[in-house]
Amino acid sequence: MGAAHKLNRISTFLARRDLGELTKTALRTSVGIERADLLLLLGSSLPRTAEWAAAAFASGIAERFMIAGGIGHSTSMLREAVRNDPRYSGIELEGRSEAEIMAHIAARSAGLAPRDILLETESTNCGDNAIQSRRVLKQLGLSPRTVILVQDPTMQLRTHASFVLYWNAEAEGVQLISQAPFVPQLVVRDGAFAIEPGTDAGPIWSVERFISLLLGEIPRLHDDEAGYGPRGKGFIAHVDVPEDILEAYRQLLPEFGSLVRKPA
Questions:
Q1: Which helix (H) or strand (E) holds 107?
Q2: Can you give the residue range of the structural domain that contains 20?
Q3: Where among 178, 198, 214 does a domain terminate?
Q4: Are residues 87 and 152 in the same domain?
């Protein structure tokens, strides 16, 4: 089994998708509801996620649309991606939060009015997304019971676990539905790695950063004293990481260990 196959297994594991696709039909088939209370997009370095989420909202998949994300470690990469894509020309970037930048993309791509998008602009990391978005919703007097979460595919699973914890979802009866916008996969072309779906996903990570993101998630998700789960730092709810995923991770370390982002 080659490195690309192992990395793709990890990518598929991380890119949680509770629906076959982000459509009303899939929501009805998979969850048994016609419409979610809230579609919540989390900030990241991938501007195209705002287009996908906005299109889904415009189709009527949720009653409300929110984007959460302040200025964090991905903000400079998001700004650079937007700056380098002519489709996003004219969007003001400097000093803007990830949520504000993505709201402009969403409005432009799907014809949404500013009043159609709720914003949370203070959060700086995955757990803070959950904490601050809930704070804003409470300030607005909103208590959504069905929430679709959309995030960078490499962070979708950890995002879901953060919301389970910080929204106390099970005890409070909040149904969280995760839907990574796509499942990135590595292919080998001319002897080098490339990422699919590539340009269809808009500005995307470099191969090196993609591998770093994938491998950095596993020690964070693993529920031990060094991880983010209840037995460790307590940043996320417990996540079961299958043994085959852990074994793929271990086998990749000799070649790619220098790229692993250590848990904070």
A1: helix 98-110
A2: 15-178
A3: 178
A4: yes
